[in-house]
């Protein structure tokens, strides 16, 4: 709940006068009562992909003073850790690839993959504007590889990757734009309170932050606050509340993805949806440093369990893949690729796999038999699994039901590679409710004035299951929407 202290009500006249000289007026007695330490038109919380795109879009839409608050000592959030695969149905790309696609098909598949629990209005806006987001990124310095592919859990061939260090390529480019546009980023600045006129009503006025060393500041937002602070997959307790299986799993997320701002927005009345939808992807097993990643390109790998047997079609939905792996012995699987598949992985996971090779967590051999011996898998069982899969590529009939579109590449070229994985918490599909303008909606269905949100802190776009490659589309599309509309929000 928002706290109202003596300090809140006894703001100083000099502070009010100073704010007015900056060109910012007060819209309420409560706003004038706070002792503000600094004032901006737009305050963006989070320096990941959604936050940086929101800040830049706000500045481009006319906001004169924009600041980004980041609780970590670096920018990037989960975006900088991501593989970078970005789903968008861009005509030039899918025609070049010889496939049929459209924003409408993208929307239909997204809604179906989320079991119809995504908000159709939000989903259709996402898929319609995702191509614009790709162009916007290009206009702001991001270069993309010249091909599209079906990413793990992506269900269709429409992902593209940036040139450069995976998701870090987006962050690097947008940080340069922030520098050019004079958008400051305050690191080590953790938001500890969202200040609203009344506990559950009225306009959002600003935030209280805590900086390194324990110093606290009140930061006023004359137009709006944009919350782009990410999800809560790094929070053992919050994830386990909704899905007890999550408590024992690690996470692929950066350590700051703990849902602080989600709970802060709930405290001032924000409605939520889908908090129990928690997605996992393969990651390193406990105790192993530098986890291998051989599963990004669905058409190039297979999963086998500790008995050397395939157990799931590798092109399944991410929630289906999660549950299948958690049901295996010790909840562990091996990913297997050949030399061509390993080379393909370098597009998005090259540095990770090089580190895994040096650490000894990524195995390779010139024959499947020798690979089995190195990994401790039953030799005959692994050989039979790979032989059966290769025959399925010829017949186009996979015993586990893998689609023909990703049943195209045999695992036949030496050396062969294997990496051991288990499931890790990866993405929280639930969060605060937003409308198509990225305004946060309260639990009564009303807009919370002056509060916007974008990215993984929101709910209602992905439904029960996020399609692989849709996160990048989400953060940059709704980041732009939030920033632009926040700038237009009347002061």
Question: Would you write up a description of this structure?
Answer:
The chain is α/β, with parallel strands linked by helices and about 500 residues long. Helix content is about 35%, strand content about 20%. The protein has 15 helices and 18 strands. The chain has helices at about 5-10, 15-20, 30-35, 50-60, 90-95, 105-115, 120-140, 170-180, 235-240, 260-265, 320-325, 340-360, 370-375, 380-395, 470-490; strands at about 40-45, 65-70, 85, 160, 185, 190-200, 200-210, 215-225, 270-275, 280-285, 300-305, 330-335, 360-365, 415-430, 430-435, 440, 445-455, 460. It starts with 5 loop residues before the first helix and ends with a helix. Mean pLDDT is about 90; it is low at about 1-25.
CATH superfamily of the largest domain: FAD/NAD(P)-binding domain
Portion in strands:
15-25%
- The CA-CA distance between the termini, in Å, is 24 Å
And the CATH topology of the largest domain? FAD/NAD(P)-binding domain
Number of helices: 15
Keywords summarizing the entry:
single chain; 491 residues; alpha/beta; FAD/NAD(P)-binding domain; Flavocytochrome C3, Chain A, domain 1; 2 domains; eight-stranded mixed beta sheet; five-stranded antiparallel beta sheet; 15 helices; 18 strands; 34% helix; disordered N terminus
Strand and helix layout:
Blueprint: H1 6-9, H2 13-21, H3 29-33, E1 38-45, H4 49-60, E2 66-69, E3 86-87, H5 91-96, H6 103-113, H7 120-139, E4 159-160, H8 168-180, E5 185-186, E6 189-198, E7 201-211, E8 216-227, H9 236-242, H10 260-267, E9 272-273, E10 278-283, E11 302-304, H11 318-326, E12 332-337, H12 339-359, E13 362-365, H13 368-375, H14 379-395, E14 416-428, E15 431-433, E16 439-441, E17 447-453, E18 458-459, H15 470-488
Parallel strand pairs: 1-2, 1-8, 2-5, 8-17, 15-18
Antiparallel strand pairs: 3-4, 6-7, 7-8, 9-15, 10-14, 11-12, 12-14, 13-14, 16-17
């Amino acid at each position: 709940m928002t706290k109202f202290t003596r300090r809140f009500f006894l703001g100083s006249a000099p502070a009010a006068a100073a704010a007015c000289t900056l060109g910012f007026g007060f819209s309420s007695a409560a706003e004038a009562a706070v002792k503000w330490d600094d004032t901006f038109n737009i305050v963006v919380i989070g320096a990941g992909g959604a936050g940086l795109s929101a800040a830049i879009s706000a500045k481009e839409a006319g906001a004169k003073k924009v600041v980004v608050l980041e609780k970590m000592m670096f920018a990037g959030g989960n975006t900088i850790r991501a593989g970078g695969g970005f789903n968008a149905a861009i005509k030039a790309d899918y025609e070049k690839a010889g496939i049929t696609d459209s924003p409408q098909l993208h929307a239909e598949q997204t809604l179906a993959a989320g079991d119809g629990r995504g908000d159709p209005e939000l989903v259709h806006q996402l898929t319609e504007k995702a191509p614009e987001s790709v162009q916007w990124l290009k206009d702001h310095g991001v270069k993309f590889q010249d091909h599209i592919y079906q990413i793990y859990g992506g269900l269709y061939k429409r992902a593209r990757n940036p040139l450069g260090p995976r998701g870090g390529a987006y962050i690097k480019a947008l940080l340069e734009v922030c520098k050019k546009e004079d958008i400051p980023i305050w690191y080590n600045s953790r938001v500890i309170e969202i200040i609203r006129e009344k506990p559950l009503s009225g306009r959002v006025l600003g935030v209280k932050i805590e900086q390194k060393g324990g110093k606290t500041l009140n930061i006023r937002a004359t137009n709006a606050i944009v919350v782009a602070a990410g999800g809560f997959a790094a929070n053992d307790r919050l994830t386990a509340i909704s899905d007890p299986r999550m408590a024992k799993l690690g996470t692929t997320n950066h350590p700051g993805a703990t849902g602080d701002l989600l709970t802060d927005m709930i405290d001032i009345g924000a409605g939520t949806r889908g908090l129990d939808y928690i997605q996992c992807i393969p990651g390193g097993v406990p105790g192993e440093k530098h986890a291998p990643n051989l599963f990004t390109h669905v058409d190039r790998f297979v999963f086998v369990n500790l008995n050397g047997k395939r157990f799931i079609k590798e092109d399944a939905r991410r929630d289906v893949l999660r549950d299948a792996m958690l049901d295996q012995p010790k909840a562990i699987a091996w990913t297997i690729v050949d030399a061509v598949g390993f080379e393909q992985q370098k597009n998005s996971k090259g540095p990770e796999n090089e580190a895994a090779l040096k650490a000894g967590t990524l195995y390779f051999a010139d024959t499947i038999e020798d690979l089995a011996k190195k990994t401790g898998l039953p030799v005959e069982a692994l050989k039979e699994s790979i032989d059966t899969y290769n025959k399925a590529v010829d017949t186009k009939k996979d015993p586990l039901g893998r689609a023909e579109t990703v049943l195209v590449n045999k695992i036949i070229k030496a050396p062969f590679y294997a990496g051991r994985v288990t499931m890790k918490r990866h993405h929280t599909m639930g969060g605060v409710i937003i409308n198509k303008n990225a305004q946060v909606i309260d639990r009564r269905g009303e807009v919370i004035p002056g509060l916007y949100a974008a990215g993984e802190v929101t709910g209602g776009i992905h439904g029960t299951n996020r399609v692989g490659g849709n996160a990048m589309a989400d953060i940059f599309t709704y980041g732009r929407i939030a920033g632009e509309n926040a700038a237009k929000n009347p002061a």
